[in-house]
UniProtKB/TrEMBL annotation:
Name of the molecule in the record: MFS transporter
CDD domains: MFS_MosC_like
Native source species: Streptomyces indiaensis
Keyword Cell membrane attributed: no
UniProt xrefs under SUPFAM superfamilies: MFS general substrate transporter
Record localization: Cell membrane
Alphabetical UniProt keywords: Membrane, Transmembrane, Transmembrane helix
Membrane-protein topology: Multi-pass membrane protein
Residues that span the membrane, as ranges: 21-43, 55-77, 89-106, 112-131, 152-172, 178-197, 224-243, 255-276, 288-307, 313-335, 347-365, 371-395
Gene3D superfamilies with a match to the protein in the record: MFS general substrate transporter like domains (1.20.1250.20)
Principal location: membrane
Chain spans, region Disordered: 198-218
InterPro entries noted in UniProt: MFS (IPR011701), MFS_dom (IPR020846), MFS_trans_sf (IPR036259), MFS_Transporter (IPR051788)
UniProt KW Zinc keyword: no
Length: 405
């Protein structure tokens, strides 16, 4: 009996990292796969546009299928995760994502493209909620703030997917390229999926129960805090979406950079964000979540002011890089805190609001650029980063109390 107890303690102690290493690796693989598949699809959008013969406006409406599918599914996936488990839902959504990415090049009209992108978006939204929920549970079990490392894997997967897509664009048709993504996705899921399915999710940390008659007030406060963390995620994703769609154009149009130099500007942002996430765990361990959000939002605000208003190209590059470092860990922290407060439902709410920010950013920048100028419009990224910093400072203490630590 003592030997059995000892073995069980060694394996099941929440902070014992070695027992969770296979699960952590498998989750990291799925984060990277998600970024890889999505980036591979994005780089072939111009070719799909030419194939369908869609106008710019028709293509824009078709691309809303991704957004609509993702947002609708994100609101439902929390319930599926609670019923079937985060790990099962992650594996199923990975299979659907891998299969559905092969469908766009098979379409020949904007309407058909929009319909298949609804399915692709649904799989994309579902897997994001499911593996973020699983990661939140693992973070609690490890008792280390490792959430940024998972999002770093997503960023690295996206960079590899985009780079490989650029290399293959001249050699493979969109159909063959995206079928290759399907094959890679299914193989990776077959390799990493069994590890997820074998491992039971870590048990949530014990929390004290509220006294009888007082349950409704903390519940309401928790929901409010989840929404607040979703707002922080949305402010962060707004900046990511804005820079992805408008960052290069600003350098080319306002600072007269060549097309190649303008592309380097966004690369500075993406590389800095990836580096920030790779070092995010160390930063969180030293500063804590609240100070990391405050410091990150402040840094991003300063960086974007420089990036949008700088008179020279190199100063703009520096501003983009500083912005990437500042924004790097805001989304992972916001999603992790929302999940710690309310489980998969909290992750779903924060992810939906975050994704909404990414959708809102590009069109909002476009309207403001028409009303004012593009550099002035891009300063809205700095404003929302500052808002994230202020909100993070205000809710930090209340969130720790609601989460029980």
């Amino acid at each position: 009996m003592p030997q059995i107890n000892k073995a069980r303690t060694h394996k099941d102690v929440p902070g014992h990292s070695s027992s969770w290493t296979p699960l952590r690796i498998a989750l990291t693989v799925f984060f990277a796969l998600d970024g890889f598949v999505f980036a591979g699809w994005v780089v072939r959008i111009p070719a799909i546009k030419a194939q369908t013969g869609a106008s710019a406006s028709a293509l824009g409406l078709a691309l809303l299928g991704v957004s609509a599918g993702a947002v609708v599914t994100m609101t439902l996936t929390g319930r599926l995760c609670r019923r079937y488990g985060n790990h099962r839902v992650t594996v199923v959504c990975a299979v659907l994502l891998s299969l559905s990415v092969a469908l766009p090049p098979l379409t020949h009209s904007a309407l058909a493209l929009g319909l298949v992108l609804l399915l692709f978006g649904a799989a994309y939204g579902g897997i994001n909620v499911a593996f973020n929920s699983a990661a939140v549970e693992l973070v609690a079990a490890l008792r280390r703030p490792v959430m940024p490392s998972f999002h770093a894997a997503f960023s690295l997967g996206g960079m590899v997917g985009a780079g490989l897509g650029g290399l293959l664009a001249g050699a493979l048709s969109p159909t063959r390229h995206l079928l290759l993504l399907t094959a890679v996705g299914l193989l990776v899921t077959a390799a990493a999926g069994p590890t997820l399915l074998r491992h039971e999710p870590p048990l949530p940390p014990q929390r004290s129960r509220p006294a009888e008659g007082t349950a409704r007030r903390p519940e309401r406060r928790t929901r409010a805090l989840v929404i607040v963390f979703g707002v922080i995620a949305g402010c962060t994703a707004y900046g990511e979406g804005a820079l992805a769609d408008w960052g290069a154009l600003h350098l080319e149009q306002d600072l007269h950079a060549s097309a190649g130099a303008a592309a380097v500007g966004y690369s500075c942002f993406a590389l800095a964000m990836t580096a920030g996430r790779l070092t995010g765990t160390t930063l969180l361990e030293r500063l804590g979540r609240t100070r990391t959000v405050v410091a990150g939002g402040t840094t991003a605000a300063a960086g974007m002011l420089l990036g949008s208003l700088a008179p020279s190209l190199w100063a703009a590059f520096l501003g983009y890089a500083i912005t990437g470092l500042g924004l790097a860990n805001l989304f992972p922290v916001a999603v992790e805190r929302a999940g710690a407060l309310a489980g998969p439902g909290g992750v779903a709410t924060a992810s939906t609001l975050g994704y909404g920010g990414m959708l809102l950013g590009p069109p909002a920048i476009g309207f403001m650029a028409d009303w004012f100028t593009l550099p002035a419009a891009l300063t809205s990224v700095a404003v929302l980063a500052a808002v994230a910093a202020v909100v993070g400072a205000l809710v930090g203490t209340a969130a720790r109390r609601a989460a029980g630590g």
